[in-house]
Design brief:
5-stranded mixed β-sheet, Penicillin binding protein transpeptidase fold, 16 strands, about 600 residues, single chain, elongated, 5-stranded antiparallel β-sheet, alpha+beta
Length: about 600
């Protein structure tokens, strides 16, 4: 009886091992066959190639779309195709995913040289790593890679596998795919690349950080020349082609100031807005997108943002053309190429005293005059006892004096007199209170509730536009490749304030800058309408101001909501510095 049990146990062990291996292989096959390459998002996916232009028709960004895997008519340009095959996998069209001849040759070369000089991985194996695995040097990973490569060869044809490779290979500097590398290194669409540029990009594949032309141009050119030599020996290019490409001078994207623009977050915002305005983005292969961004203003604002200390504190700036709603400048961070968080649209922060235009506006609508007096003395509303800045109180003062000194007591008194619902309704008509819904608490009147920089700046822009609010937009028009119009901005507007009331609010804002709490924004000889704002602990520092037909909002603060040692005067001064630069106004330092 004991012998029978022992025999059964001996038989069960191999059966369990075989079952485990079978299940593992089945799971590997199933997941590979089920894989949808369109959902593999190493970066923002665009269904169309595009050129993004500034308002002055300067190029902000160019990017070719990824190669369509299932569209046989969407061909890979020959030089791109041949450069990668020649340098990465010469026998690509002859093997079935695993090239034992290449593996043997690489092994021999590595043993002879004493170090890893040559890799034996096929393009198919690299696709397996890119889409399913990692670069760990383990036996288990290599076995998986071989299995997945064989399955990929079964599921896709060679051109599809090559497209998967060219769409996903990492080529350094944040570029995933040949289309992004073309943009990053040369600011071009892939169809615009020269043979020399293509060979340089192909030469990045083995080690992008080592061969990056931004890190070591000489080494990148040496590797480019090796790719060109390989293409020549493989019969893909002529000797004349090779020699001309070697002689060609490499002009990197950063060397071409008209084309270089590093703010990927801003470009992605423009593209997201584009997607919302075209009915079916799959219908278009190429778009010319004219944004409303003024490239010169944008670059000046970005440079100004870097003056702010300490290093960790963040910054956002937005400029809106008041009579159109067009966004002329949008700075989302001090370093937008590194810190990809949109503080203009995504950051909801307490508005502080910038919100006070709402209760004062509601008071003026209700018939209260600028000369009417209110008590500016310490006061409690049930358990709520707000204080003025630095505990300064002025007794009985006019509406205009209370706004100028940024009293916290008076706006709450106004709210109690005319009702919180009137305040909320007016705020809503200005486009406020939708990011963080208002509740009927007295602290609402002094900006305890949050919104984003876009909405509060657009509210002030309406006051600068005689009480008419525009729908803000970063787009002017969208056209197809042959300049056929697809969409054009229709400038949607709505009248929300009577002209007399609007003039009175502007008087309050002008007094605040000229004589009051917003003096840091004052420019001699200029009419400026604006207001600072500060949340508890100086966590949020605001200034929103208008000059001419432009309204610009600035926010400064820490992302983790820490207290700061700065004041809203810093925001007001940076506003003044920006305005002085773009309009060439002389100011005292």
């Amino acid at each position: 009886m004991q012998k029978i049990k022992s025999k059964s146990f001996v038989l069960i062990i191999p059966l369990l091992i075989i079952s485990g291996i079978s299940f593992y292989i089945y799971n590997l096959i199933f997941s590979t066959l089920k894989f949808d390459p369109s959902k593999n998002k190493s970066s923002r996916e665009t269904k169309y190639s595009y050129i993004v232009l500034s308002s002055e028709n300067k190029i902000l960004s160019k990017l070719s779309r990824k190669f369509e895997i299932d569209n046989s008519e969407y061909k890979i340009p020959l030089f791109i195709k041949h450069s990668f095959i020649s340098s990465e996998d010469k026998r690509f069209f002859k093997h079935n995913g695993i090239d034992f001849k290449s593996i043997s040759r690489a092994l021999f070369q590595n043993i002879r040289s004493g170090f890893v000089k040559e890799g034996g991985s096929t393009i198919t194996q690299q696709v397996a790593r890119l889409l399913f695995l990692n670069n760990d040097l383990t036996f288990q990973r290599k076995i998986k890679e071989i299995f997945i490569s064989l399955i990929l060869e079964f599921r896709y044809n060679k051109n599809q596998i090559l497209k998967l490779y060219l769409n996903n290979i990492y080529l350094g500097e944040g570029a995933y795919g040949v289309n992004e590398a073309s943009q990053v290194y040369f600011g071009k669409l892939i169809e615009e690349l020269t043979l020399s540029e293509i060979a340089l990009i192909a030469g990045l594949a083995p080690a992008p950080s080592i061969y990056s032309p931004y890190q070591n141009l000489e080494l990148a050119i040496q590797n480019r020349n090796k790719v060109l030599e390989s293409m020549y020996l493989d019969g893909y290019i002529s000797l004349i082609n090779k020699n001309e490409a070697i002689k060609e001078k490499i002009n990197l994207n950063y060397q071409k100031s008209d084309n270089y623009f590093e703010d990927k977050l801003l470009i992605n915002f423009i593209l997201d807005e584009t997607d919302k305005r075209i009915e079916n983005k799959n219908d278009y292969e190429f778009l010319i997108i004219k944004s409303s961004i003024n490239k010169d203003w944008q670059e000046r604002a970005q440079r100004i943002s870097r003056y702010i200390e300490p290093k960790q504190i963040e910054f956002a700036l937005l400029s809106i053309e008041s009579n159109t709603g067009l966004i002329r400048t949008m700075v989302t961070s001090k370093n937008p190429s590194i810190n990809e968080y949109n503080r203009v649209t995504s950051s909801i922060r307490p508005l502080g005293s910038t919100f006070k235009i709402i209760p004062y506006g509601a008071a003026l609508i209700d018939g209260i005059n600028l000369s009417d007096k209110f008590e500016d003395l310490p006061k409690c509303w049930v358990n709520y006892c707000p204080k003025n800045f630095a505990d300064k109180y002025r007794g009985k003062i006019t509406l205009i004096e209370s706004f100028k000194s940024s009293s916290n007591i008076v706006p709450i008194s106004i709210t109690k007199k005319i009702g919180l619902k009137n305040i909320i309704n007016l705020a809503n008509s200005f486009g406020l209170g939708y990011k963080q819904a208002f509740e009927e608490f007295p602290s609402l009147a002094i900006g305890s509730y949050g919104d984003n920089l876009l909405n509060i700046t657009n509210a002030y822009s309406a006051i600068n536009n005689n009480g008419t609010i525009q729908s803000p937009s970063i787009l002017e028009k969208i056209e197809s490749f042959n300049n056929q119009s697809i969409w054009e901005n229709k400038f949607i507007s709505k009248k929300i304030l009577d002209l007399k009331v609007n003039k009175k609010i502007n008087k309050l804002l002008q007094k605040s800058v000229k004589e009051g709490s917003s003096k840091a924004a004052f420019i001699k000889g200029e009419k400026i309408y604006g207001k600072t704002g500060t949340s508890d602990g100086n966590k949020d520092l605001w200034f929103i101001g208008s000059i001419y037909n432009l309204t610009t909002g600035i926010w400064i603060g820490y992302d983790d909501n820490r207290d700061s040692q700065l004041s809203s005067a810093n925001a007001a001064y940076l506003w003044k510095k920006f305005i002085a630069e773009i309009y060439k106004i002389s100011i005292k330092k």
